[in-house]
Amino acid sequence: MSSPAPIPYVPPSPPQRRRRPSGWWFLFAGLMIVVGLGLGAATLVLTIKGFTDIDAHVNADGRPHQVSVDDSQTYLLWGRPSDPSDCVVRDGQTGGSLVRVGLGSTSYTRGSWEGLDTIEPIGESVEITCSEAGGDLEIGEKPSLRTFAGGLALGVGIPIVLGGAGFVMLLIIGILFATGAPRRRSV
Fold first, then answer.
1. At residue 23, what are phi and psi to the nearest 5 degrees?
2. CA Rg, the chain, in Å?
3. What is the span of the domain harbouring residue 155?
4. Which is more confidently placed, 161 or 118?
């Protein structure tokens, strides 16, 4: 009896490589990083700007100055300790005194300016008169720690989320590009 002829060994064909991703995906991932950094920087700038913004600068000239305000906000009066202000703040429409809230245990400093007092406007304008013997006064919305902290969190969080997603996408696309088969170009 004769034995059957051995079957020759045929190695399995190598697995087909995936096609490389398009180069446009690199651009998309890079744009995610750039947009994340840009939005984060813009948020931080706006947060800091909002913290240092003033609505009006009132000269110490003895004349009344009308300042438009939002009656739902609390405003901070700023003065220079080196040149103390002597100012009277009244409601713009009625001329009545405004509610002075005070600073409590909080202190505010912005360059050479210090927070003097806070007011809660009754109407949509206040009248400020600073005597010539004192210094100038500035008025602006009272900074809110909650708003400031939220702005900082967004200013840091946006780049981490968008930029991080873009970075992970770049890594994955880079690996797929390096291990993938070249794309066929149509002529």
1. -65, -20
2. 33
3. 24-48+148-179
4. 161
pLDDT digits 0-9 by tens, 171-183: 999 998 888 877 7
Neighbouring residues of 135: CB distance < 8 A, sequence distance ≥ 6:
60, 79, 80, 82, 83, 84, 85
CB atoms within 10 A of CB 90: 17
Do 172 and 131 lie in one domain? The reply is: no
Q: How far is CA 95 from CA 92, 127, 128, in A?
A: 6, 8, 10
Residue 81 and residue 32 share a domain: no
CB 113 within 8 A of CB 136: no
**Whole-number average pLDDT of the chain:** 85
Task: Read off the amino acid at residue 126.
Answer: V
Structure-block tokens of residue 135: 């210094």
User: Is 163 within the bounds of a domain?
Assistant: yes
Give a yes or no: residue 187 inside a domain: no
Interstrand relation of 99-100 and 56-58 (parallel, antiparallel or unpaired): unpaired
